[in-house]
Amino acid sequence: MKHPAIKRIAIVLLLVGVGLVVNRVRHPREDPTLVKGSGTVEATEIGVASQATGRIDKLLVAEGDAVTEGQVLAQLSADALSADHERTEAAAFSARMRLANLARGSRSEEVRARAAALSEALANVQGARRQMANARDAYQRPPDLRAAYDTAHTQVRASGAQLDQARAQLAEAKAGARPEELSATRAARAAAGSAAVGAGAAVDQADAARRAAAAQLAEADAAIKGAQADLAQAQEILAQRSAATTQVAAATLQLESAQAAQAAAQARRDTVESPPRPDRRDQAEQALSQARAAQALAEAEAKRQRNLFEQGAISRRILDQASTTLDQARAATKSAEAGLRDLDAGARDSERREASASLTGAQAGVRGAEAALANAKHEQAIAVAAAQQAVERAKATLAGANERRAQAVANQDQSADRLRGSRATAEQAKAQSEQSQAALDLALAGTRAERLAQSSAAVRTAEAQSAGAQVALSNAERAYQDRFTYRANLLAAEQSASAAAARVDQAQAQLDLALAGNTSEVIEAARGELNQATAAEKTAKARLDDTVIRAPATGTVSELILRQGEACTPGSVVVRMLDLAHLWVRVYLPTTAFTKVKRGQDVDVLADAFAKPVRGQASRRFAGRVLTVSDQAEFTPKNAQTVEERVKQVFWVKIDVGDGQGLLKPGIPVDVRLRVGQGG
Q1: For 634, which DSSP code?
Q2: pLDDT digits (tens, 9 = 90+) for 299-358
């Protein structure tokens, strides 16, 4: 009787157990530590932009190609940049050689050459001093002027004697002629004829002297015009000092550009090393404005230098320096723009290192620009001194030309006086010849009224000759007292002696400089030029490197924005690519798990797309890690107050799935499973 009851109890218990199992299968119990979510695999899109302006010569990838970090994607035209890099490389080499040459100091050959120049200058000083002594002696004792004065004095005495003789002849004419007087009159007639011929020759000589003096005056006037032109040119060079002033202006502009670049680099480093703040953005915008203003000034200066170079006013080196300054200003503008963009986008470790390196380079550029400015100012001072010396030399030349002109004028006046005196003498000789002939005729004819008139005329002629001799004596005395030519020669000799002494001082200074070697300031200036040339070379190399567009990360080319042959500018996106090495999923979780999900927590990612087509086969699992957790809930009003409303709120979580084992692709739906309270 007991066995059937036991069987029935066992059957009931079995049925109850089966019911519990079926209920558990149909309604499984949820694990409170497991949080689930769904999302879609996504990849970061990277826009690879150009950092230079140019035409795309080569496009080396196609859409869908897999690329690695650093792989070349495109190549821009780089002929001009290659030439600029070679030019800056040559300039850096030249500056390096110049610094090495200055550091070695003066060679023995140069010292001997400067010592020989000093000896030559000393010999020139001695010769100039001897010439000055001779000129002083000639000025103090002019022999030719003294002889002319004595001759004029003799002529005065002779004219007085002739006047006495004419008066005596007049008395004799009144008294009548004797036979011996007739003989004397004939002799006087012959002598007067000879004197008339000699006076004519003297007139021709005096006229030739006058023409020679006029030629000297014309030559002196031409010399004055040339000296005035040289003085005007020297004064214009001194006033303009275009080359040295342009070099100083270019160095100043380069220093301003370097300072702007330093400010931009400083702002960028401050930006990447500190969290973005409104005042940081204001500083970045201010640095960008300063860089753009410096670029505008550099462009204007480069245009002005180009015009001056085409006119032949400056050298190619100054034009290249202005071009380098413009390139640096443009680079500073690009750096400031990049700093502002980086401030908005945030900073990475590589950007921090790059910002520090840019700041170091900008500081070196500022030091080089300061040294270049000091060197330019030194060269400007040298140019000013040279221009002032040219002005002084032109003034001395003009003074000498004026002295020669004054001497030529004096010679012309003296020649004119001599010509007038010679003509008067000729007229007197002619009158005397006629008078002698008349006297002879009168003597032959006896004393008549005509002879008396002739004797009276002879007296008047003798009186005129005496007056002319007095004038000639006065002129000779004035010339002797003036001694203009000898004074001019003495002044020229003194100036030559002073110039020779100055050349001795200059040669001595050059010898001392060669013995002492180059100063530290000159070597530092050369080192600054080397730093500047090296910075320009690095800038040109960086600009040349910018023509090669490389992949910033490993990924897949998703779109080609520009094609081969098209032009691009800095910031133009050439290729878009997807970073498949860092895939991620965004899922939304309930707010009940908000405080339990931690950054770095491990996550299981399940993808049905890779499950085997077998009934009951589970989805394939991929390892994931929590990257970011949202700091606020979404999809519900912020002022939700009731418990029912609060449980409806969700927050998003960004999960990193790495490269997805090479299987996951953007757009694939996945499920996420994570254990709350567990973290990495």
Answers
A1: B
A2: 988 888 888 888 877 778 888 888 888 888 898 888 888 877 777 766 566 667 777 877
pLDDT tens for residues 488-536?
A: 777 788 888 888 888 888 888 777 766 666 667 777 888 888 899 899 9
What is the C-alpha to C-alpha distance for residues 548 and 529, in angstroms, rounded to an integer?
29
Token pair listed for 17: 């157990």
For residue 101, which of 518, 382, 514 has the smallest C-alpha distance?
518
Pairwise CA distance, residues 455 & 170, whole Å = 5
Placement of tokens 């996945």 in the chain? 670
Structural tokens at position 582: 């860092």
- Asked whether 298 and 253 are in contact (CB, 8 A), the reply is yes
Residues 6+ apart with CB under 8 A from 123: none
| Residues 149, 168: Cα–Cα separation, whole Å | 29
Say if residue 401 is exposed, middle or buried (CB neighbours under 10 Å; 0-12, 13-18, 19+).
buried
SS (H, E, C) 477-490: HHHHHHCHHHHHHH
Tokens of 637: 């009003």
- Number of Cβ within a 10 Å radius of residue 439: 27
CB contact at 8 A, 668 and 607:
yes
- Please name which of 360, 410, 678 lies closest in space to residue 535, comparing C-alpha atoms: 360
CA distances from 620 to 15, 34, 611 (A): 37, 18, 6
| 144: Cβ contacts below 8 Å, ≥ 6 apart | none
User: In the numeric block, which tokens belong to residue 419?
Assistant: 């010509």
DSSP line for 287-321 = HHHHHHHHHHHHHHHHHHHHHHHHTTSS-HHHHHH
Instruction: Count how many Cα atoms sit within 13 Å of the Cα of residue 534 in the half-sphere of its side chain.
Output: 16
Residue 313's CB: how many other CB atoms inside 10 A? 14
Measure the CA–CA gap between 64 and 557, rounded to whole angstroms.
5
Decide: pTM greater than 0.70. Answer: no
Contact (Cβ atoms closer than 8 angstroms) between residue 356 and residue 267: no
Say which residues have a Cβ less than 8 Å from residue 44's Cβ, sequence separation at least 6. 578, 579, 582, 584
What is the residue whose two structure tokens read 């200036």? 525
Give the length of the chain. Answer: 680
- With 0-12 / 13-18 / 19 or more C-beta atoms within 10 angstroms meaning exposed / middle / buried, residue 650 is buried
Determine contact, residues 271/284, Cβ cutoff 8 Å: yes
∠ CA(513), CA(517), CA(523), 5° rounding?
115
The stretches of 311-348 forming alpha helices (DSSP H) are 316-345
SS3 148: helix
Contact 475, 131 (CB under 8 A): no
Q: What does the alpha-carbon distance between residue 131 and residue 419 come to, in Å, rounded to a whole number?
A: 34
| Secondary structure class of 73 (helix, strand, coil) | strand
